[in-house]
Amino acid sequence: MIEIKKITGEVLFTSPAENLKSAMIDAVEQSADLSGAYLRGAYLRRADLSGANLRGAYLRGADLSVADLSGDDLRWADLRWADLIGASLSGADLSGADLSGACLSGADLSGADLSGAYLRGASLIGADLSGANLSGADLSGANLSGADLSGAVIFDCWVIKKMEGGAK
User: Which of 56, 62, 97, 168 has the smallest C-beta neighbourhood within 10 Å, fewest atoms?
Assistant: First the structure.
């Protein structure tokens, strides 16, 4: 049995699953409120977590590579140093989230809300940011080489790095 908890120890969801990845999928399928979940370093590679409520979740250093997080509520989530290579985050709400140092290479962030997000030193090489809202985002030191920014809202952002390889 797996319990998904907040950092305070409060249990958010209990699953008969044998591993965290299966428990997370159970929680999403049952529309559990996982806001504030403590999932530091969690291995959730290729997990289908689309539509999950992970608002304010602590996912620092988590492996979410090739995971489906489309349409997720990830407002104010801590995703520092998370592996999101090839992840689908299309239409996700990442406003105010901290993605500093995260690897988002090849990720689909089309139509995502990244307003006020912290992407300091993040790798966004080849990421699809088309139609994304980056208003007020901190992109200082982020690598946007080959990123697709067509139709993205880029207003009042901090970008302090040369975009080599030509972001579109």
Answer: 168
pLDDT in tens, 4-54: 999 899 999 999 999 999 999 999 999 999 999 999 999 999 999 999 999
Query: Distance between CA atoms of 119 and 154, rounded to whole angstroms?
Result: 14
pLDDT at residue 165 is higher than 70 = no
Residue type at position 122: A
Per the structure block, which two tokens stand in for 3? 């319990």
Distances (CA, A) of 105 to 2, 10, 75, 101, 124: 31, 34, 21, 12, 5
| Residue 42 C-beta-side C-alpha neighbours within 13 Å | 24
Res 164 pLDDT > 90: no
Residue-level pLDDT at 46: 96
Helices (H), the chain: 20-29
Which residues sit opposite 63 in a β-bridge? 43, 83
Contact predicate 42/61, CB 8 Å: no
| Rounded-to-integer distance, Cα 77 and Cα 21, Å | 18
